[in-house]
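Database export, one record per block. Field names are fixed; values are copied verbatim from the stored entry.
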Amino acid sequence: MWIRNAWYVAAWAKQVTEGEPFARIYLDEPVVLYRTTDGAVTALEDRCCHRLAPLSRGRIEGDNLRCMYHGLMFDPSGACVEIPGETRIPEKYRVRRYPVVERQNVIWIWMGDEALADPGDIIDWPYLDDPAWPYEGGYLHYKSNYQLIVDNFLDFSHLPYVHEKTIGTASYAEQRPRITHTDFGLHIENTTDDTPPTPAFAPFGNFAGNVDRWSIYDFHIRGNCVVADFGMAPVGGGGHAGDRRNAIQFRHLSALTPETANTCHYHFAQPRDFGLDAEGLDRKVLDVVVKAFHEDKDIIEAQQIVIDLDRDAPMLPLEVDRALLHVRRQIDRMIAAETPVSVAAE
């Protein structure tokens, strides 16, 4: 279904506020996030071990979280530290604690084997906390399996059709990206010279005519993350490898965290290096991205409905599907490697 031993985006840091439990489901597990008195983020199983009431309906008291059904209180390690009316607390009265890291305005969570959780494996994307690259973070909730969205990440050929009036142009369907397999997933480069600018972003660059355009990104299989260098520059400057002084540039993040088999959390950001003093530009860029991503969301959620009608109906691959098919195979291998193998007793 999904890879457990991975760092997933749990939330934007600003979403988990002081004094308010924050509830989400990740990989079919209910989780509550909250901040302790020093501002650190804690993630616990959102299910009281007494009667399974959600702790996210509870109350933060100092560094602890109290269940507001029968009053049990849990510390940041997940241990129950108070049961009203009782003096003895059995050791088994606890909830699971999940490793979390807050970095570059993102809260990351590890849903697998805690012994394998190495914060050094978290993707470093410094543009997310660099004042020279402003942005406003976005979030969408998908009613689809996360792998359909991963497929969409790795497919440029849909852009002229799904995004005809926003971020797509005809050249995307005609050109095949250069794909390199890496230890983390894929490195993909799609560059086009002397082509019309994408309709939605053209106004930001005030381009008089055609542009040299690039989409260069890494897809990290663990955590379902895209980090990307997108941009456009006037024709003749050398494109992505040349003079970018008159370009508009973005450093994009897209991160998928499965919620259930058919729902998913999608966090994204589009840091830019232009118009740094322009009032309201963060929101204008986000609105463009959200409009385009809603176009994806509409077709993918409709696709999921059709798939659910007949789970055995085959998908017939095209040459343009090489990247997404490779990633699907890698995901399957990683999931299989995490799944314990039953060995019959001799």
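Remark 1: The domain at 7-119 is CATH 2.102.10.10 (Rieske Iron-sulfur Protein).
Remark 2: The chain has two domains: 7-119, 130-335.
End of record.
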